[in-house]
Inverse folding.
């Protein structure tokens, strides 16, 4: 069962396509990372996901209630913390007041403190509280860690993961820093130049890809036997990042597992490569 | 939404309430202390000529920031991603705040009328004259509402508070001047002929007319004055209220459409 899916999703701003023919599905309960360079269309995809903007073509489907935290983590600066939580309660029937109160207490903040007087990290935590207490089934976060110091990044991520463990909700979060996501996300979507390049479970992607290093003389023969994502040729030695199994290799070759960050970089360097789920028949 | 609307706009509510109290107090004190003769009217009358521009303040401080400030501070992304739809968000805000400014304008009109009634003997204390026509009856309520919705619609379209404020001021002044010109012709004016030197006191109710324009010179078959008689006051009040009310509805529609637009 998918928590979130798009089919042929496209968005054009004036003459420029921000997103083209994007089809992807994220199963329920996953923590999905949406990565890609600046201008890849991440924010456009997320805003389409939560209905802030309308698609030019295609469809977005989200199962259940959706909460959204935008990159700027907007809050009303003049409100107190208590008023901010009241804002959440008044505008959301599914508001979980106990969760909000517990999180504010955990942060060690007084309900009377003004939002404008909080630090960037505290404000991010308050903004996160506001979306978590809505008890959404799908939580969409646009660059939740941007503009935060390393400690605050860690704490926001930890709070998010604790909430996921408690509620089993699906999370879709964007970032251009892959290392932030390495140990927290179990689904990866790579977006590049407005197109989806990769979408799949992190474990499967890591299993399916490998790094092969061997003599330059044999590299073409090996490359022909499998799908090459990225290739680096030196004078005597070549390195291939491949998707699939090339079969038996001569002893001069070494194979290594590939990390998430290398995988993402390899795809971003080769915009024509793709690792997408092949069409499968699903039982209804 | 009721709480949120009040919380976000309580400064405007408080400032407007304080202004109404101040104006009311000034009018009351003036009327109460000037019972011996009618000199008190002359004290306040010059200040009263400034009050027709009050709707400009309503448009600038109530209307323009309503949506524009949410865009400018990025909080539109917060306000419009809650369970309450953005249609409902804008509808509730326009309805609640529109009701509040209309009530404020009507209360203001009642206060000015009471003050004018105190000086019933003075020809200048004429509720049908342009300056007082927009300060009495139902018209001030509609002017305040119109100004609020004009500011709100401009703010929703321009998405910049200061720009919306500036355009609101300009647009309101144009509409005010235009309606002041047009007002004499809501109904065909009546020609009051002048036989010999004109003496205003000859005609019953002459000091409660809306003066339109003189008809003089060699081309005039019957020299005289085009006026709107005093008994047309309420007909004119409702005519202007209908004009402003219709425009207000259109502006509310434009504001809602601008908020709904998801480019």
């Amino acid at each position: 069962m998918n928590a979130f899916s798009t089919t042929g999703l496209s968005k054009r701003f004036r003459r420029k396509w921000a997103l083209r023919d994007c089809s992807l599905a994220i199963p329920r309960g996953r923590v999905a990372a949406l990565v890609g360079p600046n201008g890849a269309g991440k924010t456009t995809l997320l805003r389409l996901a939560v209905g802030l903007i309308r698609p030019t073509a295609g469809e977005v489907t989200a199962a259940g209630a959706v909460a959204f935290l935008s990159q700027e983590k907007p809050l009303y600066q003049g409100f107190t913390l208590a008023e901010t939580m009241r804002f959440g309660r008044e505008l959301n029937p599914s508001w979980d007041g106990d969760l909000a109160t517990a999180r504010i207490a955990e942060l060690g903040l007084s309900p009377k403190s003004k939002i404008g007087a909080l630090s960037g990290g505290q404000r991010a935590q308050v903004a996160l509280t506001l979306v978590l207490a809505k008890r959404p089934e799908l939580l969409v976060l646009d660059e939740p860690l941007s503009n935060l110091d390393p400690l605050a990044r860690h704490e926001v991520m930890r709070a998010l993961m604790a909430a996921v463990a408690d509620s089993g909700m699906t999370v879709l979060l964007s970032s251009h820093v892959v290392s932030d996501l390495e140990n927290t996300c179990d689904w990866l979507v790579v977006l590049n130049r407005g197109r989806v390049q990769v979408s799949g479970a992190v474990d499967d992607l890591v299993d399916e890809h490998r790094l092969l290093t061997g003599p330059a003389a044999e590299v073409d023969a090996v490359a022909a036997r499998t799908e090459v994502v990225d290739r680096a040729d030196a004078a005597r030695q070549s390195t291939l990042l491949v998707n699939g199994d090339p079969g038996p290799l001569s002893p001069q070759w070494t194979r290594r597992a590939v990390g998430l960050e290398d995988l993402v970089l390899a795809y971003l360097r080769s915009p024509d490569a793709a690792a997408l789920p092949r069409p499968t028949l699903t039982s209804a | 939404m009721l709480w949120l609307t009040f919380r976000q706009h309580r400064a405007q509510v408080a400032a407007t309430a304080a202004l109404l109290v101040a104006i009311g107090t000034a009018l009351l004190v003036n009327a109460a202390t000037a019972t011996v003769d009618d000199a008190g009217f002359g004290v306040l009358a010059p200040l009263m000529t400034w009050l027709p521009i009050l709707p400009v303040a309503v448009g600038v401080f109530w209307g323009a920031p309503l949506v524009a400030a949410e865009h400018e501070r990025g909080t539109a992304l917060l306000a419009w991603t809650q369970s309450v739809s953005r249609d409902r968000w804008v509808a509730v805000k326009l309805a609640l705040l529109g009701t509040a400014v209309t009530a404020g304008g009507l209360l203001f009109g009642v206060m000015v009328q009471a003050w004018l009634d105190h000086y019933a003997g003075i020809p200048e204390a004429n509720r049908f004259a342009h300056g007082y026509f927009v300060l009495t009856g139902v018209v001030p309520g509609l002017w305040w509402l119109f100004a609020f919705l004009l500011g709100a619609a401009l703010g929703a379209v321009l998405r910049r508070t200061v720009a919306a404020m500036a355009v609101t001021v300009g647009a309101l002044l144009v509409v005010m001047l235009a309606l002041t010109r047009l007002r004499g012709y809501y109904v065909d004016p009546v020609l009051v002929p002048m036989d010999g030197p004109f003496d205003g006191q000859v005609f019953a109710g002459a000091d409660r007319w809306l003066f339109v324009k003189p008809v003089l010179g060699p081309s005039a078959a019957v020299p005289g004055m085009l006026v709107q008689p005093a008994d047309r006051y309420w007909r004119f009040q409702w005519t202007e209220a209908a004009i402003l009310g219709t425009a207000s509805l259109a502006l509310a529609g434009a504001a809602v459409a601008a908020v709904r637009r998801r480019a």
Notes: The interface with chain A takes residues 1, 3-4, 7-8, 73-78, 80-84, 262-263 of chain B (CB under 8 Å). Chain B has ten helices and three strands. The radius of gyration of chain B is 21 Å.
